[in-house]
Each structure stands twice: as C-alpha cells, then as structure tokens.
Amino acid sequence: MSENPISNDLNGAIPSFFARPNVRQEVIPIAGGIPFGIERVLNPEVGIGGAYGTWGESYDNTHLKELIEQRMGEPLRDDEKMNLAELGFVNRHHIPHLTDEEHLELEVEVGSRLLREAALANGWQPAEVQAVLIGMSGPVADDYVERICRRTGIPESALKVSVHKACDSSVGGLNLALNPGLTAAGQTNIAEALHGKKVLVGGIEGLSRFTGRTRDKNALQLFGNGAGVIGIIPGMTMKFLVGKDYEAFDEKGVLAVRMFYPHSGKRVAGHTMVEVSQVGQSHIRVAGLMHEPGNGDPIAMAGPMGMVKLFVRTGVQVVSEVYQAYQKLMDKLGMPDKPITVAIVHHANYKINKLKEKHLKKEGISFPMPWLLSEFGNVSAASNMIAFLRQLPSLKSGDHILFDGFGAGTYYDVLAVALGG
After folding, report:
1. Phi, psi of 416 (to 5 degrees)
2. Phi, psi at residue 77, to the nearest 5°?
3. CA–CA dist 31, 357 (Å, integer)
C-alpha cells in the first residue's frame, strides 16, 4: 500500500475545514448559533460547478474523545480509541443536542443554502433548476428534499428524487440521473427525463444527529456532518459512458443501520431490495432495505475490519465489471488507450480505499484514487460529491471519470462518465 498522507503524529496539524481560504463562514441562528461553512467550486472548461460544506463545531482527533465521553457518560478506554489518522481522518463536525424541531430547521436551512450556492456556482438561478436528486442515510424528514427545494425557490414542478442507500446514496442518485438502463418496467426513466436539463445532484448528511442517539463508540468516532451538491446538464456537461448498480444484503449486520425513511422492511428472494415510490406529483423516493440494529440504535458497527471485508471484495468485483465494459466501449469508439483520469471513491476510510486499489491492480486495473476528505470524517453519501468538487479544478473537458459509490445495505453504484462539451 502507498504511504498514508496523514502521519500518526499529525492528528491536529491539518486545520479545520472552516480555516480553508475559500470557505465562507456563517452562523445559523439555532441553539445559540451553529457554525456553518461553505465553499463554491466552478470549472468553466467542463461547465460544472457546485458547493460543499459542513456545520457544527470542529473536533480534531484529540478533542473528539472529550465529546464522546460526554455523550456516553463514561470514559473512552484506550482499547476503544480508533487510530483515526491512520484511517485518513483528522477532523469532523458535530452539533449539540437539539430538539426535533431544531434539528429539522437546522438541516432544512443547511440544505437550502447548499442548493442555492450550487445553483449559483453554475450560473443558474434557483428558479431555473429542473431537478434535484439528494442522497441521505437518515433523512430528518420524509419530505426533506421537497422542503429544501421550496425554501431555495426551486419550482414545485422540478423533479425531486430522495435516495436512501446509505453511503452509496449520492452516487446512486448520479447513476439514476445519467444511466437510462436503470429504470424498471412501469417506473419513470429518470435519466431520459433529465437529458439536457439543469440538474442538482448531491448528498446531505446530518450524521451528528444520526449518531447522537447511538451507543456505538466506533460510529461516534468515524462519522460527522457534511454535504456536497454538484450541478450538471446530463448529456452535455456530464455524459454517461458505462455503469451499473449492485446489491448484496449484509446478512451479518456488519454495518447495521436503522431505516429513518419509509420502507416495507420486507426482503423477497430474487427481487431488488430497493423500493421506488412516487410521493406526490414531482417527488420520487428510492429506498434501500437495511439490516437494522437489533437494539433500536441508529447504527451499529462490527468494527473497521468488518467494513473492510464487507466492502472490498464485492466492491472490487463491481468496479472490475464496469471497467471491463468501459474498455469494450473505448475499443468500439476507436479510443482503446483513453484512460480513466481519476476515480472518485467513497471515503469510508483510507485503509478500505487503499486495499481496493491494491486488489484492482492485481486485476490489471489502475487509475488515481486520491484521498481528499481528511477534515470531515466519514460523511457517508456526501463524500463522493465533496471529493469530486475538490478534484474538479484540475479536470479538463473530455476527461473520463469513474465514480465508485458503496455503503451499508449493501449497495454499490459505479459509473464512468465523460466531462465537458
């Protein structure tokens, strides 16, 4: 494996996200004031922009221990402390305990600010946006996407898609927006409906709320708040090349997650675990079945090594299949040497990503898989979109990008796209 970019002795040396030069810092007036930071990104050459950010106090690896002990009401033993720097994380953001009403208002305000800034980054007014696809592990409200669109000023007629497939949710939304082959019989073909339209795609994860009610000390150390939203015009600024989605139920509950969204909870042999439902005239919900914790907790982890085993083997298989399809397409198009410029991989943790990279190289597959989210912790569905926005300034028109999404459930969405005109 390559060397970890975050040395164990640098736990507090990487500054908070709020300290970045292009981050606009604000305070959301709830519970005495919640810190909020947001950064806009635009690459005019490829015609794609967006915004990403986070909210809550920033905790580095040293001070996180104090927060966890406060929430748990007991000391965090040495054998319970994770080596977070080794896993690629230096900071993450948490909020204080809030009422249900305060949580709702906070996350609606955060979401609307992200949508507005992402639209403006692309030169669009909110009223011009024609669709919004947002991935969330545990939404604060069933109609969250409708609420944030309404507050942003996005038309009621705009298509709204809520995707609940844990950490895979935002890439799942991107796959739906671009890949016309995903639609089942009798369902709206989202990719066909959105071709040539102004579309916002992202992940918004209030994981401090989500984990605030758990007793799982691993989850409390790994996860934090984060959000990222990009603006694309399918078929123009971002073109679908190849891709697939895949699901394999987490039988053992290695990463068990409570479903804070409507789902029948039923599993039928030979059928997809993802339920798609029409919610009102312009809202579609895509909800994946989860192995839920038996004690009613929001989340329960078997441990980091369990996640490695859960995600790597199947993840390598899915990426390999998509890459083979990509190679066949490039051969057909007369571009056999056209490379994947970069892979935007979910930042579950650094060890998982490096192990996937190692196994892919054994299969003869190699492309850059940069680690880009040190200041956030694992932010679930937000991570791919934040990582893409951080990579975006270095990309060029015509570049081919691989998005690799995966998460609890277990769900995988992998797709290759072409950027620019």
Report:
1. -105, 135
2. -65, 160
3. 43
pLDDT digits (tens, 9 = 90+) for 316-363: 999 999 999 999 999 999 999 999 999 999 999 999 999 999 999 999
State yes or no: pLDDT of 8 exceeds 70.
Answer: no
Distance CA 319, CA 244 (A): 9
**Domain ranges within the chain, ordered by starting residue:** 8-419
The full DSSP string for 168-227 is: THHHHHHHHHH-GGGPPTTS--HHHHHTTS-EEEEEEE-HHHHHTT---HHHHHHB--EE
- b/e burial code for range 199-219 (CB count within 10 A of at least 16 → b): bbbbbbbbbbbbbbebebbbb
Domain 8-419 coded CATH 3.40.50.740: no
C-alpha to C-alpha distance for 203 and 363, rounded to whole angstroms: 31
Q: Which residues contact 406 (CB under 8 A, 6 or more apart)?
A: 167, 168, 311, 314, 315, 318, 346, 348, 412, 413
CA 291, CA 278: separation in Å to the nearest integer?
24
CB count in 10 Å sphere of residue 308? 17
Q: What is the pLDDT of residues 256-303, one digit of tens each?
A: 999 999 999 999 988 999 999 998 889 999 999 999 998 889 999 886
Q: Tens digit of pLDDT for each residue in 39-59?
A: 999 999 999 999 999 999 999
| Residue 85: both structure tokens together | 């720097």
- DSSP 8-state code for residue 411: E
